[in-house]
Amino acid sequence: MINFKHNTIALRILTVFLVSFTVNKKHLCSNHPSITSTNSPHLSLHSSLVEMVFDGHLSFENIEHTAKDFGGRYRFMPSAVLYPKSVSDISSIVKHIFQMGETTELTVAARGHGHSFEGQAQAHGGVVINMESLRVPEMSFHTGKLPYVDVSAGELWINILHESLKHGLAPKSWTDYLHLTVGGTLSVAGISGQAFQHGPQIDNVYQLQVVTGTGEVVTCSEEQNSDLFHAILGGLGQFGIITQARIALEPAPKKVKWIRALYSDFAVFSKDQEHLISSENSFNYIEGFVIINRTGLLNNWRTSFSSKDPVQANQFTSEGRVLFCLEVAKYFNLEDSDHIDKDIDTLLSDLNYVQSTLFLSEVSYVDFLDRVHVSELKLREKGLWEVPHPWLNLLIPRSSIHQFTQEVFGNILTDTSNGPVLIYPVNKSRWKNGTSMVTPEEDVFYLVAFLSSALPSSTGKDGLEYILTQHKRILNFCGRSNLGIKQYLPHYSTREEWKAHFGTFWEVFSQRKSIYDPLAILAPGQRIFHKQRHLDDDDLKSLRSVNRVLEAHR
Ligand code: FAD
pTM (2 decimals)? Predict the structure, then answer.
């Protein structure tokens, strides 16, 4: 019999036990493609938080949307969602939960635009903070020799672009898609075709304001609280909630020459890419992608581009080969119009693409940077945006990239990739040291991104199960062959895997966790550290009673 005096605690523990059993059971089904838990284990949360006063508000209802993300595979229901209107709202709730100590498993997840893939911005039974409702400070621009803008961390990059253009300025380093928040991308790195020159977005920040896992509000930069500054950048949300960021700006160009050209030989393609990222005078953006198209028909990759040689280009077919498309862009202003084409011809003259496959387009700077949004709108129209996205992003050292492409595009992904596959090198020597992001230990490494979409009900080659198996094969190959890769936007389920990911940096990473978020309250969806609930004597007595009940029912 459960002791009547401990009934409530026992019930709570039983719920925790049953819920975690359900979740763990699902984790154990390794073939299960999606993981859902809608029950909340924290029955006491409501009473503990309901009396708090916020400038914004805390909601216990209509919160299901925060148990979803772009990946579409993980669904963990929080107990409440905070819509903050001030930094002190965020600090108060974190401090409150911190002060509850180890009597609760409550955690807090900052949610940017929810464009993670594996539940990273979710908090099972905890509190999700909707960062987009934090609108302080209003964007404030500082022009001068080193221009910058102070923004709220919940701001979308697309809004920063539009506002900074009014001052003739723009951030230097981007992601391919701009409908993501500042806090969301600074927590991972933020890599795109400008990273070879400027480093990722985390290298282009002067200062941050952060709420740590104890609820303290701290300003940090290279000069002030620099350990926290470095920890936060690329820190997967583990050390604090970014509330404000000072982003470096540069004069913005008006126009962009956007160029694509094909290669049928990876060795030639990668040699040209590496040449371009190491040249002093080069393009402003350098990426590339793989075209796996066994039918020989080539379509999407050149939509809205014009060919330099239309007759020959139309005759070009893939003949069943895997092709590699170089994608580069040169920024310019109207006053450069008389020499920009000549400059581009000079840069292209060093390259060895298939001559008939050069395609050009001229677009505004905004249209170039916001290009993925155009695809988003088209996919939304067809109902193909809100489907599962099992994405896999890898950083591959230059010394392994040939072995990697041979196996992956020769044996594993033979007839379809179910979405774009990006492949481009970056120059680590132009990246800053000391952030939390881990990369391969070579000066040049490639980002290879498998951006797959799955058809929800399909059990075929376009279904989730099949795509996940392909990704597993790719990862197994990398592990077996010791390619020295790192995952970007990493996702692991065991401590051992996380330790292997961070390598020698693990000690620093976990020490910083114990300093800045000692109870492991923040970003539980990354599944690196787990908040432990300390059971007191009453809890233990009740747990023993629960065990006896369960034993009796076995
Ligand atoms: P969320 O998904 O909401 O959060 C991500 C993580 O950061 C969570 O752990 C969350 O708790 C934490 N977090 C959020 N806000 C804060 C904060 N203020 N303080 C502390 N922690 C916080 N990435 C690239 O690098 N380059 C690309 O080109 C690129 N393209 C993409 C295109 C698309 C269509 C999508 C969906 C994603 C792309 N990404 C790219 C990945 C993207 O950068 C990450 O998934 C990013 O974390 C998403 O930002 P978000 O605002 O949606 O963050």
Answer: 0.91
